[in-house]
């Protein structure tokens, strides 16, 4: 990896996004609007405080997966990636440049949604707000990394979207958001244990219910961070210059 090339790639992605206001609005505004909708669906501050922390991770995770998988695929199908790969640009330089650019947007995305929830919607947490923000950003980065990874296996944008039921929806269903993981059958519980979103939601739940930073919380954060790095490395290994 070359840090200067990685930073140049990140600047290029951010410049492109600046000229695509619809994508920026989707990235920044949509999670906040969903949190507002959730608050008035429950119409109860205690119920909202119970469900909102997990969804602060799930919403950015889902949106970043969609945006990054389609954006990367578009660069490959348009020939942009093939032209870039003729330069002294490594695959890791490219993917980590994407990660840096979308990571900055993820920080802004989650900061807006979390700030709105804490300041206006009445979200009540026992732990520190910065730890909640850190975990939610890791969720967004996880969605971004998985989106970069699966884009290598899609030939069209429609195919990229089709990967969502495979990589995103099972994680949402089994992460403990709808039912406690301990109450699931052993097969579902095992599947839940190998899905990184489960650890992210568990960490968000711990921050909500306690101000103590214990070993389980640290373990959850390390697992999610390692999964982000693993998805980026696998994405670099499977990245193709163009779509056949």
UniProtKB/TrEMBL annotation:
Q: Which Pfam families match?
A: ABC2_membrane
Source superkingdom: Bacteria
- Give an example GO biological process: response to antibiotic
Keyword list (alphabetical) reads: Antibiotic resistance, Cell membrane, Membrane, Transmembrane, Transmembrane helix, Transport
Record's Gene Ontology CC terms? ATP-binding cassette (ABC) transporter complex
Q: Where are the transmembrane segments?
A: 21-42, 54-73, 94-123, 129-153, 160-180, 221-239
User: Does the record bear Transmembrane helix in its keywords?
Assistant: yes
Q: Which GO terms describe its molecular function?
A: ABC-type transporter activity
How would you describe this protein's topology in the membrane?
Answer: Multi-pass membrane protein
Q: Which InterPro entries match?
A: ABC-2_transporter_component, ABC2_TM, ABC2_TM_bact-type, ABC_2_transport
Domain named ABC transmembrane type-2: which ranges? 14-242
Task: Name its cellular compartments.
Answer: Cell membrane
Per the record, the similarity remark reads: Belongs to the ABC-2 integral membrane protein family.
List the PANTHER family.
MEMBRANE COMPONENT OF ABC TRANSPORTER YHHJ-RELATED, TRANSPORT PERMEASE PROTEIN
The name on file for this protein is Transport permease protein
* Taxon lineage: Bacteria, Bacillati, Actinomycetota, Actinomycetes, Pseudonocardiales
């Amino acid at each position: 990896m070359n840090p200067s090339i990685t930073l140049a790639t990140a600047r290029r992605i951010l410049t492109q996004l600046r000229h695509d206001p619809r994508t920026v609005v989707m990235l920044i505004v949509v999670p906040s609007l969903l949190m507002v909708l959730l608050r008035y669906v429950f119409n109860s501050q205690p119920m909202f405080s119970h469900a909102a922390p997990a969804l602060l991770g799930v919403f950015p995770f889902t949106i970043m997966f969609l945006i990054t998988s389609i954006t990367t695929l578009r660069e490959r199908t348009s020939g942009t990636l093939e032209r870039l790969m003729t330069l002294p640009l490594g695959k890791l330089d490219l993917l980590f440049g994407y990660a840096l650019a979308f990571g900055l947007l993820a920080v802004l995305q989650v900061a807006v949604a979390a700030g709105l929830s804490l300041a206006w919607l009445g979200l009540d947490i026992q732990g520190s707000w910065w730890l909640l923000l850190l975990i939610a950003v890791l969720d967004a980065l996880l969605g971004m990394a998985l989106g970069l990874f699966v884009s290598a296996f899609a030939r069209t944008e429609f195919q990229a979207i089709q990967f969502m039921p495979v990589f995103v929806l099972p994680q949402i269903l089994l992460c403990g958001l709808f039912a406690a993981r301990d109450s699931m059958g052993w097969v579902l519980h095992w599947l839940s244990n190998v899905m990184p979103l489960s650890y992210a939601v568990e960490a968000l739940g711990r921050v909500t219910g306690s101000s103590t930073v214990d070993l389980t919380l640290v373990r959850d954060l390390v697992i999610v961070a390692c999964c982000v790095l693993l998805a980026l490395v696998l994405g670099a290994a499977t990245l193709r210059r163009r779509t056949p």
